[in-house]
């Protein structure tokens, strides 16, 4: 099912309640990407039994009432755990796995996908009682996620589990499970078709097909495509600009390793169109990076915002303070902590690029950028993509301090501070 369409309410709250009402001597194991999330649903089911058990002839055992592990006097009960964690003490007559992965960043990792699959085979599946049932409820993120792995196992194995696959796309397609007409929304009261179409335009075709229509495609086959980035001769002169720096933690090759790059794209926006005007990319010592940042600021001029990703901890704070005091004194400079999974941060860039709203100013760096875009997020490097995505976020932020106001520059030919963001809100 698509996100925010009530799948956990249906399968992690009402299904256990219904199951224990009918078979109070049976046991349920509920697993999710996080133990606390699973326990949340266990707590809700337990509270429902406490409040309404008299009407449905079931009751909690007084000596077993934790949110993540409780029992009924009739002998059944519920255990909640995180995917990857241990499940001990009971078997499962009903095993529910609700969203085994937390986000797109996690499922992008082949290691994390393998970990979830191994946990299922070695731990979860072994707890199932004879005659028991398994429900896996999730939004599809990746063709090789847990559901993808299990369906592949069925195709290749000698003893298939013979899964029933029930697919509820946000917008109905041919042979819909609910007999909807093609194009009909799944939950029109909450998400009418106009809202879904706006959402599709915002998230882009890759995430729309995977998360909302349950048809994931391989990474590198749709999230970012090279042909989306038109090459232009120059950017408009009347544009708001930011130079966004992502500093690498390593400086040079050692014993065949491939360290990250320090990356600093110059990105501008004009009438809702983003222009990647320049890309500074280097492997250098901290002193070499400081010289590059300072030189770039001098060439860009005071009218260009400068933003830098702040690493966690005191070292990140000290780095930003050093640049403010020593390297970029007098410039409109700020450090920001990255928020959210990287793939989520790149989503606005992907949606804007697919809509034709991201242009590359012709330069020697174009091909490296396009190659990195086409391999994201499976490629060796993602510094350019991450930095550009952050720059787009900077340019859509209505809370930044205008460099023209800060430095007293002539702004007769520049848009007022909130105008660009207002245009971009229409885009997203």
Could you characterize what this model shows?
- The protein has 428 residues and is α/β, with parallel strands linked by helices.
- The chain folds into three domains: 7-166; 167-218, no CATH class; 226-427, 2-Layer Sandwich (Nucleotidyltransferase, domain 5), CATH 3.30.420.280.
- It is built from 13 helices and 13 strands.
- Strands 7-13-10-9-8-11-12 form a seven-stranded mixed beta sheet, with helices on both faces.
- A hairpin with a 2-residue loop joins strand 9 and strand 10 (273-282).
- Helix 1 (7-22) crosses helix 2 (35-56) and helix 6 (193-212) crosses helix 9 (342-354).
- The longest helix has 22 residues, at 35-56.
- The model is unreliable at 251-256 and 400-428 (pLDDT under 50).
List the helices and strands and how they pair.
Elements: H1 7-22, E1 27-32, H2 35-56, E2 60-66, E3 69-72, E4 77-82, E5 92-98, H3 104-108, H4 110-124, E6 128-137, H5 146-156, H6 193-212, E7 230-232, E8 240-245, E9 262-270, E10 273-282, H7 286-300, E11 305-309, H8 313-327, E12 333-336, H9 342-354, E13 358-361, H10 366-375, H11 383-396, H12 403-407, H13 419-427
Helix pairs in contact: 1-2, 6-9, 9-11
């Amino acid at each position: 099912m698509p996100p925010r369409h009530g799948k956990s309410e249906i399968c992690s709250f009402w299904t256990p309640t219904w199951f224990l009402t009918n078979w109070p001597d049976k046991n349920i194991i509920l697993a999710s990407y996080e133990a606390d999330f699973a326990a949340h649903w266990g707590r809700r089911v337990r509270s429902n039994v406490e409040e309404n058990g008299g009407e449905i002839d079931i009751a909690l055992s007084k000596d077993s009432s934790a949110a993540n592990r409780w029992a009924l006097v009739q002998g059944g009960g519920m255990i909640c755990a995180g995917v990857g964690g241990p499940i001990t003490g009971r078997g499962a007559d009903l095993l529910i796995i609700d969203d085994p992965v937390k986000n797109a960043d996690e499922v992008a990792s082949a290691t994390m996908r393998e970990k979830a699959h191994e946990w299922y085979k070695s731990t979860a599946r072994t707890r199932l009682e004879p005659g028991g049932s398994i429900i896996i409820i999730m939004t599809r993120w990746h063709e090789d996620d847990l559901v993808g792995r299990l369906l592949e196992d069925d195709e290749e194995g000698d003893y298939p589990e013979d899964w029933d696959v029930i697919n509820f796309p946000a917008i109905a397609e041919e042979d819909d499970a609910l007999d909807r007409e093609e194009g009909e929304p799944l939950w029109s009261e909450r998400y009418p078709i106009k809202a879904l179409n706006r959402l599709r335009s915002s998230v882009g075709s890759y995430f729309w097909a995977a998360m909302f229509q349950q048809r994931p495609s391989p990474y590198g086959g749709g999230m970012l495509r090279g042909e989306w980035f038109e090459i232009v001769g120059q950017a408009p002169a009347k544009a708001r600009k930011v130079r966004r720096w992502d500093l690498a933690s390593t400086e040079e090759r050692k014993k065949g390793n491939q360290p990250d790059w320090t990356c600093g794209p110059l990105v501008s926006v004009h009438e809702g169109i983003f222009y990647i005007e320049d890309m500074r990319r280097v492997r250098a010592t901290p002193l070499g990076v400081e010289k590059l940042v300072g030189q770039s600021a001098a060439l860009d001029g005071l009218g260009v915002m400068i933003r830098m990703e702040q690493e966690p901890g005191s070292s990140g704070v000290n780095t930003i303070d050093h640049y403010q005091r020593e390297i970029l004194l007098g410039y409109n400079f700020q450090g920001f902590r990255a928020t959210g999974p990287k793939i989520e941060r790149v989503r606005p860039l992907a949606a804007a690029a697919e809509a034709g709203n991201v242009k590359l100013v012709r330069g020697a760096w174009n091909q490296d950028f396009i190659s990195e875009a086409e391999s994201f997020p499976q490629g060796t490097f993602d510094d350019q993509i991450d930095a550009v995505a952050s720059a787009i976020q900077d340019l859509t932020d209505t809370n930044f301090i205008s460099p023209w106001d800060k430095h007293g520059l002539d702004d007769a030919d520049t848009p007022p501070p909130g105008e660009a963001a207002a245009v971009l809100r229409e885009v997203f």
